[in-house]
Amino acid sequence: MTYSAIAHIHNDFKEKFGIPRQSGLIAQVESRIIFDEKYRNPDAVRGLDEFSHLWLIWVFSEGFASRKNNKHDFSPTVRPPRLGGNERMGVWATRSPNRPNPIGLSCVEIVSVEPDTPDGPVITVRGADLMDGTPILDIKPYIAYADARPDADCSYASEAPDTHVLTVTGTELIPDDMEKEAIIAVLSSDPRPSYQKDDSREYGIVFGSYNIRFTVADHRLTITGVSHT
């Protein structure tokens, strides 16, 4: 089976660190979906603006490319962040990127559909959990009566995580040309891996064209410096 990307997504998430762990958690960040040249036909997005949400089917390209010869040993269990990163679950019972076929599925909200731009049709969405440049394999409209299951049993993921677990200070260091509301939302959700909670460590996250350094202690994230990448 051979598949090719139909589009790529573009946003301020320039590296894996800091990307929301699920789609829809950080609605303040907007992304643009730009189609590859072969698919830049305005007719292909006709009627899409009548929907509010989309399913994106995409590839974990960054992690997959780093695996030697695009191959890796199959691991039947992984450590979900929702369980603190210490408890193992079967890979099919998680949404971990560490799986045989590195395919992701995300539900995002449509902000706008522009059928005719210099880049061809462009879809702007919010709530994506994809890194900048991620290839998209397919786009499908979200249909509530078929896709929503309010009574579903979701095991350890039955409760939505708190996306504002940290108080963010030092926001006066955020440059005026950065989406301030978006980066504060990303930082307040605690972007650190679940296994990495060192109060004495300074962390760094790349967002847009800036590297933001911070420390975390007592549920408070303090921005310590901001510089151009």
Which secondary structure elements does this structure contain, and how are they paired or packed?
Elements: E1 7-10, E2 30-35, E3 53-59, H1 61-65, E4 77-78, E5 89-90, E6 103-114, E7 122-126, E8 135-141, H2 144-147, E9 167-169, H3 180-188, E10 203-207, E11 210-217, E12 220-228
Parallel strand pairs: 9-12
Antiparallel strand pairs: 1-2, 1-8, 2-7, 3-6, 3-8, 4-5, 6-7, 10-11, 11-12
Tags for this entry?
about 230 residues; mainly beta; 6-stranded antiparallel β-barrel; globular
Short synopsis of the structure:
The protein is 8% helix and 31% strand. The protein is mostly beta strands and 229 residues long.
Notes on the protein architecture:
This protein is mostly beta strands. It is 8% helix and 31% strand. It is built from three helices and twelve strands, in the order βββαβββββαβαβββ. The chain has a six-stranded antiparallel beta barrel with strand order 1-2-7-6-3-8. A hairpin with a 7-residue loop joins strand 6 and strand 7. The chain is globular. It starts with 6 loop residues before the first strand and ends with a strand.
The SSE order reads EEEHEEEEEHEHEEE
Number of helices: 3
Instruction: State the strand order across the main sheet.
Output: 1-2-7-6-3-8
**Share of helical residues:** under 10%
Termini separation (Å)? 38 Å
Main beta-sheet annotation? 6 strands, antiparallel, barrel
Integer-rounded radius of gyration: 19 Å
Mean pLDDT: 90
Q: Give the DSSP E fraction (strand runs of 2 or more residues).
A: 25-35%
| Tally of strands | 12
Spans of at least 5 consecutive residues whose pLDDT stays below 50 are 64-69
